[in-house]
Amino acid sequence: MSFIPAPIVRFYHRMASPPHFYSFTEKLMPWLIVIFVLLLIPGLYMGLYLAPTDYQQGDSYRIIYIHVPAAWMSLFIYVIMAVCGAISLIWRMKIADVVLISSAPIGASFTFIALVTGSLWGKPMWGTWWVWDARLTSELILLFLYLGVISLYGAIEDKRTASRAVAILALVGVVNIPIIHYSVQWWNTLHQGPTVAKAGKPSIHLDMLIPLLLMATAFKFYYAIAMLQVAKVELLMREQNSQWVKNKVVDVMGKVNE
Amino acid sequence: MNSFAEFLAMGGYGFYVWTAYAIAFVVLLLNIVLPAIQRRQLLRQLALKQKRIKQ
Q1: Number of independent structural domains in chain A
Q2: What pTM was computed for the model?
Q3: ipTM at complex level
Q4: Most CB atoms closer than 10 Å: which of A35, A118, A156, B36?
Q5: Is B12 on the interface with A (CB under 8 A)?
C-alpha cells in the first residue's frame, strides 16, 4: 500500500475507528446540510418554475426532477452497499457494516419514490399507473432487495453474523443493477430511453438539464445526511458498552439528569 | 406562467406533479426525523442504564 499517500492511509485508519467516525460525522453535518439546501432551492426553483414546459408532455414532465434523481440514487446507493459488503467481507471493517445497513432505508426510500413518482407520471402520459415491463419490474425487485437487507439484518440477533449475511445479500443482488440500467434498451417498453446517461450528448435542453443535475447532486448530499443520521444510531447501539459511547451519553444527557 | 394559480395548476397536471413532490418530501423528511428521535431515545436509555449501574 506504499503507493497510497500517507495522509490518505491515516484518514482511512481514523475513519475505521467508530469514535473518530462519529465525531467526524458531527463536524461534517452542518456543511452537508448547507450544500444540500444551496443545491435544492435553485434546483426546485428552476425545475418547477424557470424550466420551459415540455412540448409533448406539458408540465407533467416536471416530475422528472424527482423521479430521475431518485431512480439514480436507488442504483447508486445499492452499489455503495455492495462495495461496503465487499469491504466488510474482505477486511472486516466495522464502519463498512454500519454504512451498509444505514444506507438500506435511504435506498429503499429512493426506490419507493422512483416507483411512486413514475406511476404518477405514467398515469397521465401512458394512461396507466403500472406496466409489468423490464424497467418497472427490475426496479420493484430492487425495492425488495433493499427490504430484504433490512429484514435479514433485523432477523439475526448477533450483529456481526447479521452484517456478514447482508454483505453477501448486497453483493449477490448487485446483478440487478445493470439489468435496471439497460432494461430500456434490451426490452421493448413504454418507459422512455435514457436522455442523459448515454453515449454522446444528452438529448435534453440545457434549461431542463441544469435543474435535473442540481437535484441529482442535492440528492447525493441528502443521502450523506440521512445515511449518517442512521449510522449514528447504529454506532451508538453497537458500541453501547464501550467507553466512548458512555462518555457521549454523559455529554449529551448529563445536563438532563442533573 | 403568469399567476400563482396557473403555477399550481401545472397545465392541468397539478394533481400528479404536486402529489409526486409531496410524497417525496414526506418520505425524505421521515428519513431525517425518525433516526433523530431514535438517537434521543437510545441516549436516554443508555443514560438510565449508567445511572442504575452507579447506584
Answers
A1: 1
A2: 0.91
A3: 0.91
A4: A118
A5: yes
Residue with cell 419490474: A137
CB A236 within 8 A of CB A245: yes
Q: Which residues of A137-155 are buried (b: 16+ CB within 10 A; e: fewer)?
A: bbbebbbebbbbbbebbee
The domain of A133 spans 30-37+63-187+211-243
Phi, psi of A54 (to 5 degrees): -70, 140
Task: Examine residue A201 and state whether it is found in any structural domain, yes or no.
Answer: no
Q: How far apart are CA A139 and CA A160, in angstroms?
A: 29
Residue indicated by cell numbers 436516554: B44
More confident of the two residues A6 and A148: A148
- Chain B residues touching A109 at Cβ < 8 A: 27-28, 30-31
CA distance A4 to chain B (A): 35
Residue A133 domain-assigned?
Answer: yes
pLDDT of residue A28: 95
